[in-house]
């Protein structure tokens, strides 16, 4: 793996660590609240981020990952916490999955980063390109989690 690719995985780990740091200040109860004006909660954002990287890789490689089917139902585009059921991973389980994911991606795809596939959305042809794109997506959802968390803290302070 070259320096650019090592940097990619460092970036993935860095942004994921930022998310996990925010989540350390979130309770299980707060992770389930959908604030007024929002469609989803912190738990949904967590599952969506976990799923997103794998879905983009799957779209590119056409390699189905059957274990993601339930995640698509719970956390895919257009879903909401209304789609959760008793099998949906808990807040704590999602934190563990999110913490493990950057290293798992590196192990699973690190040797395939430059393998070329038929272009998909935005002309992406390699797993490396897909992973760079997911960093942008991660930032958007970190901001959503931060905003929801801030709103919940403010409403808790107002109630006190």
Number of helix segments? 6
State the end-to-end CA separation. 53 Å
The number of distinct structural domains comes to 1
**CATH fold type:** Four Helix Bundle (Hemerythrin (Met), subunit A)
- Structural class call reads mainly alpha
Biggest sheet overview: none
- CATH-defined architecture: Up-down Bundle
Protein name: DinB-like domain-containing protein
Pfam families: DinB_2
InterPro entries: DinB-like (IPR024775), DinB/YfiT-like (IPR034660)
Domain DinB-like: 11-143
Can you give a write-up of this model?
There is one protein chain. With 160 residues, the chain is an all-alpha fold. Helix content is 65%, strand content 0%. It has helices at residues 3-23, 28-31, 42-61, 69-75, 91-109, 127-159. The mean pLDDT is 95.
Helix/strand layout:
Elements: H1 3-23, H2 28-31, H3 42-61, H4 69-75, H5 91-109, H6 127-159
Helix pairs in contact: 1-5, 1-6, 3-4, 3-5, 3-6
Summarize the structure.
The chain has 6 helices and no strands.
For this entry, give a set of tags.
DinB-like domain-containing protein, DinB-like, mainly alpha, DinB/YfiT-like, about 160 residues, Four Helix Bundle (Hemerythrin (Met), subunit A), 6 helices, about 0% strand, globular
């Amino acid at each position: 793996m070259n320096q650019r690719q090592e940097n990619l995985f460092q970036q993935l780990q860095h942004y994921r660590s930022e998310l996990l740091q925010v989540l350390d200040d979130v309770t299980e109860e707060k992770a389930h609240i959908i604030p007024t004006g929002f469609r989803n909660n912190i738990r949904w954002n967590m599952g969506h981020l976990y799923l997103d990287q794998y879905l983009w890789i799957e779209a590119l490689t056409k390699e189905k990952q059957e274990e993601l089917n339930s995640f698509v139902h719970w956390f895919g585009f257009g879903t909401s916490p209304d789609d959760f059921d008793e099998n949906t991973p808990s807040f704590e389980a999602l934190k563990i999955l999110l913490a493990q994911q950057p290293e798992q991606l590196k192990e699973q795809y690190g040797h395939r980063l430059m393998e070329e596939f038929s272009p998909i959305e935005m002309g992406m042809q390699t797993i490396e390109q897909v992973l760079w794109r997911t960093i942008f997506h991660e930032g958007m959802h970190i901001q959503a989690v931060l905003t929801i968390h801030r709103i919940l803290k403010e409403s808790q302070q107002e109630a006190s």
